[in-house]
Write a structure and sequence with these properties.
Blueprint: H1 5-8, H2 21-32, E1 39-43, H3 50-62, H4 76-80, E2 91-95, H5 102-113, E3 122-127, H6 134-145, E4 151-157, H7 165-168, E5 172-175, H8 181-195, E6 198-199, H9 203-211, H10 215-227, E7 233-234, H11 236-243, H12 248-259, H13 263-267
Parallel strand pairs: 1-4, 1-5, 2-3, 3-4, 6-7
This protein binds adenosine-5'-diphosphate, magnesium ion and zinc ion.
Residues 6-7, 9-11, 17-20, 46-52, 156, 215-216, 219 line the site of adenosine-5'-diphosphate.
Length: 268
């Protein structure tokens, strides 16, 4: 058993993120200039790096050498919040899909009162924040508006319009986007090299196309292709079959047949 590619390659710093410079650059600048807000809203399509960025931001804020735009990677907080870390007491990740009511909001309010156990800030990451009920959000309103100095909020959601306006207006809102094909292709190419995998020409373009701009979906597809390949070679034929595309050769033949006005060949 190996862990999924998208987990093994989850970025631990903003520098490792691809295609989201509209988010990472201003946040890194704010971290360098010590101008970090108290509440953030990360929105955008699934698998584009919202949860990852929330964790990276928490890591930057609580690094012993921080707040910094490049976490040191070696202090207790950095290790705990790294890819293989077990999580930190001062960074509370809440799955809003299952903790979305007034009681959960009250519980969070009580926890926010306490100073951080060890690090600089107590950071609450509310993932899938669109699932929080309006009553839940209302119970959080005062706290999100004027949190104690040691508290930071990061909301992550695919549906920012479902986060009530009064909460949204108290956050810095950063929209994540689908990653364009060129940087994605470059990313999967480097990743294959690191993994010692060879992909036949055309394979990675197909993977990028099928991934639809979501790094997670793209890595999952690549993972599946690698898993189903003999040795370390991912063949074009296998990729075409799995991803449900028409083989480029077949397309060429049809186009040639059309060009030549050869109906028999086209139908064949
Ligand atoms: N911008 C990105 N750059 C590099 N890898 C990414 C990026 N976005 C997503 N990933 C990959 O996809 C995985 C899932 O990302 P995640 O942050 O959970 O997405 P989201 O919360 O937006 O659905 C990560 O572990 C990482 O491997
Ligand atoms: Mg997420
Ligand atoms: Zn550190």
């Amino acid at each position: 058993m190996t862990t999924a590619l998208y987990r093994r390659y989850r970025p631990e710093t903003f520098g490792e993120m691809i295609g989201q410079s509209q988010v990472t650059e201003p946040i890194m600048t704010a971290l360098r200039g010590d101008r970090v807000g108290h509440a953030y809203l990360f929105s955008g399509p699934r698998g584009c790096g919202k949860t990852t960025s929330a964790r990276v931001l928490a890591r930057c804020l609580n690094c012993a050498e921080g707040p910094t735009d490049v976490p040191c990677g070696v202090c207790d907080s950095c290790v705990e919040l790294g890819r293989d870390g077990g999580g930190s007491l001062d960074v509370v990740e809440i799955d809003a899909a299952s903790h979305n009511g007034v009681d959960d909001a009250r519980d969070l309010r009580e926890r926010a009162v306490f100073a951080p156990a060890r690090d600089r800030f107590k950071i609450f990451i509310l993932d899938e924040a669109h699932m929080v009920t309006p009553q839940g959000f209302n119970a959080l309103l005062k706290l999100v508006e004027e949190p104690p100095d040691h508290v930071k909020f990061i909301f992550a959601t695919t549906e920012p319009e479902k986060v009530i306006g009064t909460i949204r207006s108290r956050t810095h809102h950063y929209p994540f986007r689908l990653v364009p094909p060129a940087p994605m292709l470059e990313y999967v190419q480097t990743l294959c090299e690191t993994e010692g995998v060879t992909a036949e020409p055309g394979v990675l373009s197909l993977v990028v196309r099928a991934g639809g701009g979501s790094p997670r979906d793209t890595l999952s597809l690549l993972d599946q292709l690698i898993a189903g390949s003999e040795g370390t070679l991912v063949t074009y034929a296998r990729a075409v079959a799995l991803l449900g595309y028409t083989h480029a050769e077949l397309l060429d033949e049809v186009v040639d047949a059309l060009g030549a006005g050869d109906a028999a060949a086209a139908f064949a």
